[in-house]
Design goal:
single chain; 194 residues; alpha+beta; Immunoglobulin-like; 21% strand; elongated; Cyt_c_oxidase_su2_TM_sf; transmembrane; transport; mitochondrion
Length: 194
């Protein structure tokens, strides 16, 4: 669960979210190193009176600052593509949950079982008990098994919605007339808000 003034991500609960956190740290380190180098070069240019004319027109320098960014982009793109393919992969789901977005609530249906569906309404602020979270608590929570691959089919009845659980690394658009699909696998038990 996120907490006030939090600077980082929520704790990872799925293997996909762990991969996303590693990718975030990898990319952030590259951005930090590039920013430090640029800041260092700018400060050198502002404080040094000496300039060497042959350095400004050198073919080698132009080659380096053309090839180096291409290599850096490849170092960012390859892990990103790997994670995108991992997120899209579905391996023999043990359970399928159909999620339908409505104007003010979500409908869930466990499609592997007959007549097992329910609606999930947000609890109004006036009815919250102490310790419950405003705009996150619902009357019927989705209960899912851990360490099992679960396929979630997401669609909408009326308008665009976004079905998201940040600690699982999930965010799927619910679009009327379109059926989107995502998978999840929780590695530990818990209560996850989204």
């Amino acid at each position: 669960m996120a907490y006030p003034m939090q600077l980082g991500f929520q704790d990872a609960t799925s293997p996909i979210m762990e991969e996303l956190l590693h990718f975030h740290d990898h990319t952030l380190m590259i951005v930090f190193l590039i920013s430090s180098l640029v800041l260092y070069i700018i400060s050198l240019m502002l404080t040094t009176k000496l300039t060497h004319t042959s350095t400004m027109d050198a073919q080698e320098v132009e080659t380096v600052w053309t090839i180096l960014p291409a290599i850096i982009l490849i170092l960012i793109a390859l892990p990103s593509l790997r994670i995108l393919y991992m997120m899209d992969e579905i391996n023999n789901p043990s359970l399928t949950v159909k999620t339908m977005g409505h104007q003010w609530y979500w409908s869930y249906e466990y499609t592997d079982y007959e007549d097992l569906s329910f609606d999930s309404y947000m609890i109004p602020t006036s009815e919250l008990k102490p310790g419950e979270l405003r705009l996150l608590e619902v009357d019927n929570r989705v209960v899912l098994p851990m360490e099992m691959t679960i396929r979630v089919l997401v669609s909408s009845e009326d308008v665009l919605h976004s079905w998201a659980v940040p600690s699982l690394g999930l965010k799927t658009d619910a679009i009327p007339g379109r059926l989107n699909q995502t998978t999840l696998m929780s590695t530990r038990p818990g209560l996850y808000y989204g």
